Amino acid sequence: MDLNKLKLNEEKTERILVSPKKHLNHPSLPSSVDLNGSSIALSPAVRNLGVTLDQSLSFHQHVANVCRTYFFEIRRISSIRHLLTEDATKTLLCAFVLSRLDYCNSILSGSPNYIIEKLQRVQNHAAHLIFRSSKHDHITPLLQTLHWLPVQQRIQFKISTLCLRNFDLSSPIAIFLTFLMSTPPLAP
Questions:
Q1: Record's superkingdom (predicted)?
Q2: At 5, phi and psi to the nearest 5?
């Protein structure tokens, strides 16, 4: 780290053990690690690049933190909604909520439906705010009017786009070579 003129901040450093729950309380695991004279305890969750990782990689805490933040932003925008046009509200919600909803959402691929549904509630609430509709109104027509994909489809779209970019040779060759497409043999 000295070569790159970087210094580790021991006060902000956290560590996590990612393991199945049955192995987390194993007596042979050290409860803390000594690093440059500072003791770093085991944390139940750590944050890296805005993503909260927990010990079982379930992303429960990440989604809870994200939803809390998004609903806070939606409440702030709803307090001035009467002053905004529909387009201005859509722009604000896209900038402050939906852009963050798409950030690192590909890590949630394969997550249980109840995790995705929490994020879907955020998107639904944003759509209702734009059109000033009741929370009991059906959401699908509103999302279609806004040209917004549901959260599960947004995740699939993002992964598909990443794969397409990779196979389209617009990515570095090292990444392309790790995902060589194989052609199945033709049946006789």
A1: Eukaryota
A2: 60, 40
Residue 180, CB half-sphere, CA atoms under 13 Å: how many?
5
Cβ count within 10 A of residue 85? 8
35: tokens are 């690093």
> In this structure, what token pair is assigned to residue 124?
């639904």
CA distance 26 to 20: 11
Q: What is the DSSP code (8-state) at residue 46? A: E
Looking at residue 15, what is its pLDDT? 78
Q: Do 29 and 17 form a contact (C-beta atoms < 8 A)?
A: yes
